[in-house]
Q: What sequence folds into this?
């Protein structure tokens, strides 16, 4: 999903940079409402996990591979505004330190993964939570649906950008078909990873999961007198 330098022309890259900057600016303000002294450390852990998980690729088909995007997972764990910031930080570090995604394409990658991936995943998750029974066991299932849908939507968004500003001599329809088909398969992997991580966190600290607020009971961490810590 990481777009390299030169795949989109300068006007398209500049336009996505403006969109990315505006989205991140809004996220900085929105994250203030989501973060507190308990959830702030989880945001750091979420960004670190997504960074590490994106470095690991899993085989998909015909010699291609995919990796976790993590937008839906981050949104459910720490909220969509904070998730936008987490994924943005990961993409900046990857671009500047690991050459994973182009520098001139950074705005495009932030738009695709930190905005489209996060917010589509979150919207689908919220919709699934309204349809499915409202209980903790539903959260990983709804998260899997959100994670699955977010991946091909982000991929097809890139295909749309390529149709307007692609620089490589490949028909736009071919790009859309290839991106959509491969990323449906990658979305299946995204769904499994999202569900597994959510289930693991919910089993230990359900009160920290943003998407489970209103369902999870608060965990009492108070150490009572006379009881060894």
A:
């Amino acid at each position: 999903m990481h777009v390299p330098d030169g795949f989109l022309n300068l006007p398209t890259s500049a336009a996505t940079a403006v969109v990315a900057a505006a989205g991140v600016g809004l996220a900085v303000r929105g994250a203030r409402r989501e973060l507190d002294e308990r959830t702030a450390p989880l945001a750091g852990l979420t960004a670190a996990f997504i960074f590490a998980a994106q470095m690991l690729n899993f085989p998909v088909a015909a010699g291609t591979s995919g990796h976790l995007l993590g937008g839906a997972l981050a949104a459910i764990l720490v909220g969509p505004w904070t998730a936008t910031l987490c994924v943005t930080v990961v993409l900046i570090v990857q671009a500047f330190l690991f050459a994973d995604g182009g520098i001139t394409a950074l705005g495009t990658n932030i738009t695709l993964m930190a905005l489209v991936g996060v917010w589509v995943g979150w919207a689908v998750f919220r919709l699934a939570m309204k349809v499915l029974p409202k209980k903790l066991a539903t959260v990983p299932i709804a998260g899997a649906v959100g994670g699955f849908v977010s991946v091909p939507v982000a991929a097809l968004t890139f295909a749309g950008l390529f149709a307007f500003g692609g620089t490589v001599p490949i028909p736009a329809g071919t790009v859309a078909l290839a991106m959509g088909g491969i990323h449906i398969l990658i979305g299946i992997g995204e769904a499994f990873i999202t569900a597994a991580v959510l289930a693991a966190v919910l089993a230990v600290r359900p009160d920290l999961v943003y998407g489970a607020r209103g369902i999870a009971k608060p965990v009492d961490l108070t150490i009572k007198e006379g009881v060894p810590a």
The two ends are 46 Å apart (CA to CA). Helices lie at 10-34, 39-54, 71-78, 80-98, 106-131, 138-165, 172-204. The longest helix spans residues 172-204.
